[in-house]
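User: Sequence for D-3-phosphoglycerate dehydrogenase below. Tokens please.
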Amino acid sequence: MPKVLISDSLSPRAVEIFRERGIETDVRTGLKPDELAAIVGGYDGLAIRSATKVTKDILAAATNLKVVGRAGIGVDNVDVPAATARGVVVMNTPFGNSITTAEHAIALMVALARDIPTANASTHAGKWEKNRFMGVELTGKTLGVIGCGNIGSIVADRALGLKMKVVAFDPFLTPERAADLGVEKADLDTLLARSDFITLHTPLTDQTRNIIDAAALAKCKRGVRIINCARGGLVVEEDLKAALDSGQVAGAAFDVFLVEPAKTNILFGMEQVICTPHLGASTTEAQEKVALQVAEQMADYLLTGAIVNAINMPSVSAEDAPKLTPYMALCGQLGGFLGQVVRSSIRAVTVEYEGDVADLNTRPLTAVLLKGLLTPLMESVNMVNAPTIARERDIKVSEVKRGEAADYHTLIKVTVQTESRSRTIAGSLFGGDKPRLVAIDEVPVEAELTPTMLYIRNEDKPGFIGRLGVALGDAGVNIASFHLGRVAPGVDAVCLVSVDQPVDGPLLERISALPSVVRVELLRF
Ligand SMILES: NC(=O)c1ccc[n+]([C@@H]2O[C@H](COP(=O)([O-])OP(=O)(O)OC[C@H]3O[C@@H](n4cnc5c(N)ncnc54)[C@H](O)[C@@H]3O)[C@@H](O)[C@H]2O)c1
Ligand SMILES: O=C(O)[C@H](O)COP(=O)(O)O
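Assistant: Structure tokens for D-3-phosphoglycerate dehydrogenase:
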């Protein structure tokens, strides 16, 4: 039974779902990195929010870990490349807290416009400073949205409802989508120059880090107000402080900080600054949604292999997972076969999917195939990291799909181009779910791949089969199945022999010395 550790504060729905699905679940929040490292090796899944840092060291200790589930959006607290390298799927819940976070941004904008936190504190203190607080109206004002994805577009929608004008800067926002949303697409400088309020909703990337710095702030309207509910690091906090001091920026509302948990910060104590402790996603509704989603997604993956919302793997629906299972086995075998016979470095891999299989999601199949191909050549390859390893090694991987198959209702043909030559192998499913090899280098040969096999290339001459049988028999090796293939009489032939006993080096040498044998390989599956 798989085991999951919940290491951040998740709604109890997550535990209920894991347990309903038969997954043993422990909840241990607030662990220090060394405490987490000490126990994480015992778990197949790790469910987190933003507090747990899933570093390289934690992943190295997580020897059984198969999946990290982020109940939320940002995965900047997870070392995704390290997880990928170790074959750990990282998944998030990309929509569960979007509305709630957008509402927090709007709440902060309204609070900034009317100075609500300071007025609240003053009133609680019995001061009744009615003349001290003079707000600004939102109607007719311009809101600049930096990053108009899920959350940014909800913020834009709500702001339009408040009768604001919305200008959006997002290189990936199409003009059609901007028109649908009712926002004006603009470049960053235009947004900065026109906005009365600016709200940030991008992930933290190399392009967005410090996107609001002293130079950007200088391009803003004097008296602009800035809201950041996305990630600390998008705004240079020192530059913002200087702009607040000079009056260039009238106010700022921050939910996220460069260093979190933010126990001290250069912006703390400034009257014009509203701060919340990363509460964007903290509503009952959003936390129920993300906990439920992450638990379902992780349970599906651990129990059925279905993959949804993974950052480092193509999706596989629960409906597709059982259909893909026999093809996964076939692809693993085809890749494994080629990986054991190639002799020089691989330049390119082409996978042709024909017939029924062409209608399926083939990306996971290619990933499994690459795993099979690379496993004999290097250590620690799995279907999560195999595509990355192939890319890093400059192996060009391509897929071709054809709805029609010539001789088989479903066919997967793999061509590996090495420095010196190309090799092709093809396989199909017999009876809907039994993997079968059907051709090697265009030579037809129908064979089930079993744990120990001899792959022999030979000249098609009389006497070969008898001599091979004698050699195996003399060594006490029983033939379980024997498959021959040739293009035409007398030309090169292929022989695949499944054997019941181990084949040692001297026996292999004896077989390769037999007349007519061109090459012999011992294959393991
Ligand atoms: N405060 C919180 O509690 C909280 C809650 C949820 C999400 N978030 C954060 O909010 C951010 C946005 O989340 P989302 O769900 O809207 O993500 P999203 O992926 O749907 O949208 C992000 C948008 O940013 C745009 N973008 C990327 N690079 C850009 C660039 N250089 N300049 C301008 N735009 C760029 C993308 O095109 C995309 O449209 C994430 O960083 C997420 O972690 C914070
Ligand atoms: O990226 C997110 O989903 C938010 O930052 C929410 O983080 P949290 O789950 O720690 O509140």
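The chain has a mean pLDDT of 95.
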